[in-house]
Amino acid sequence: MRVNTRGELAQGDPADVNHYVDYGAKVYAVADGTVVDVSDDLPDQPPGKLPDPTTITLRTVDGNHVTIDMGHGLYVFYAHLRKGTVRVHRGDRVKVGEVVGELVNSGNTSAPHLHIHVMGSPSALALDGLPYVIDHFGLAGQIDVQAFDKSDVLTGQWGKRWAKPVVENDRFPLNLNIVDFAPK
What we know:
The protein is built from one helix and ten strands, in the order E-E-E-E-E-E-E-E-H-E-E. By secondary structure, the protein is mostly beta strands. The chain has two domains: 17-119, Glucose Permease (Domain IIA) (Distorted Sandwich), CATH 2.70.70.10; 134-180, no CATH class. The strands form three sheets. A five-stranded antiparallel beta sheet has the order 5-2-3-4-7, with no helix packed on it. A three-stranded antiparallel beta sheet has the order 9-8-10, with no helix packed on it. A two-stranded antiparallel sheet has the order 1-6. Strand 3 (64-71) and strand 4 form a beta hairpin.
């Protein structure tokens, strides 16, 4: 999830998906590869609660999504994309940094966020994700983990950004780190 400069996840009514800071954010390819799976026809899920479990199917659980074959038996999966914004199709070659779609709240989710993981199969539901590191990012702050875990709402200020982000290389952010993914 994305926070704004005041550390908010949502501005205004959290029942309106348009009030989330990350709603509509561009989602970029993290690696070169070939698109092997795409879904782009599911509507937004109203935020604040999970959908009725009886309405979730294997096809709809991840919402609109893209799977990219990075080669060497590795795939990257992006879920909860906005209907009609997925810019790639099966068989397309993508380059790192290319926009693959926009973030929304489709599928089995209660608030807009990007679900991304690396896996050893093109099926996101058939196996566990694999560990990976991010080549570089700016560690820009920390959300209070205990306060976040105790809260039932996503409104409020969750963390202040530090005056100057710390450059991190070849690692994965920790739980509720605030990070910047700006170019080097």
